[in-house]
Amino acid sequence: MNVLLIGSGGREHALAWSLSASPLLGKLYCAPGNAGIAAEAECVAVAADDIAGLVAFARRERIDFVVVGPEGPLVLGLVDRLSEAGIKVFGPSGKAAALEGSKAFMKDLCAKYGIPTAAYGRFTEAAKAKAFIRERGAPIVVKADGLAAGKGVMIATTVSEAEAAIDAMLTGGQFGAAGTEVVVEEFLEGEEASFFALTDGAAALPLASAQDHKRAHDGDSGPNTGGMGAYSPAPVVTDAVAADVMARIIEPTIAAMAAEGRPFKGVLYAGVMLTKAGPKLLEYNVRFGDPECQVLCVRLMSDLLPALIAAAEGVLRSFQLRWYDKAALTVVMAAKGYPDAYRKGTEIRGLEKAAALPDVTVFHAGTKGEDGRILANGGRVLNVTATGRTIAEAQQRAYEAVDLIDWPEGFCRRDIGWRAIGS
Question: Between 20 and 30 A from 160 (CA), which of 201, 235, 236, 284?
Fold first, then answer.
């Protein structure tokens, strides 16, 4: 099969790495790709949000199957356009992608169908949002309704912090169109986990568990980011917890979306808070997590490509996946200043030494190749990923590889996996 992968981040490099090992694969293209993906696929200069350009490329190159990595083109309706052109594709329709594209839509769906989530209000007027906050008190959570690259969530510890977030989003336009409506919700106590399931619109197949680290700095301090590291499996997601999440959150969501005329095909990524009252849904993403995808891919024993095809074709019910009985951990190396202002174009050295270590894979997230050099080209730049018998062993190997990378303009957290190792 000729396969086209959409995207340019670490998630897409991990997917390209997995797809390239499939015996079903003929040629793999990636649009637009990055310097690391270029080792696995032919990168083509078509932007991930250039819907017309992607459809035209898929037609011209007789692409048999498209895998959409990031949320942006899903929300823009890329799957619909490819389907109209008769091209098979993995990912939800534009109407189904509203689960991530609009937090207000997701919360209303949960309320209508009894899916456990935090109590909330949705607002377009700052005064009403602030009145709701003062009535509820702090801590409280303020979220931009639309896509904000993982940064549109403010966990406010005081009422004044929450009100400042409202002003920044609704009045100050901090997240542009994504913040013209906000969701304000109760702060949930517990431990957060990432739960993934492939779905074909009716059946669901749970994937391995993972846990992300959203804050920029050690000790879960600093601003929220797109994710600074992850590990799998997550010890907190026991078999009983996984069954509970499937029964109370994932399966009811699939049924609800079908009932709403928005059948969901693709991967459902549930951010779940494990509270004393059971698992509650924090938010949905409609694609693989980044950087969780990286740790899932290195643990996956089965061929990924037929699993994605089964989800797209509606034949997932009889499908099974096998996983390696080992742990995986990934450390995100980011440009100094991220998630705020950062420099592009700085050179990264030592990647070959790091990748040569046993059980280590370095996925590129924001890089470009220039004159034989690898340059940083984004905020999150590398995902240094390792496996081991335990999370502690995988952590040790990952940081050993990090220390071989010569990039003075980069930084990383030094405590990825601390919850699992300390438990």
Answer: 284
Residue 322 lies in a domain: no
> Which residues make beta-bridge pairs with 69?
none
In a domain, 76, yes or no: yes
What is the band of 172 on the pLDDT scale with cuts at 50, 70, 90?
Answer: confident
Burial pattern 68-104, b for ≥16 Cβ within 10 A else e, equals: bbbbbbbbbbbbbbbeeeebbbbbbbbbbbbbbbbbb
Distance separating alpha carbons of residues 249 and 243, to the nearest angstrom: 10
Residue 319 falls inside a structural domain: no
Query: What pLDDT digit, counting tens, does each position of 343-381 carry?
Result: 999 999 999 999 999 999 999 999 999 999 999 999 999
For 187-234, what is each residue's pLDDT tens digit? 999 998 999 999 999 999 999 999 999 999 999 999 888 899 999 999
The CA distances from residue 369 to 12, 35, 204, 352, 373, in Å, are 17, 5, 39, 14, 6
Output the CA angle 114-115-120, nearest 5 degrees: 90
Helix axes 10-19, 292-299, angle to 10 degrees: 20
pLDDT at res. 423: 53
Both 204 and 282 in one domain: the answer is yes
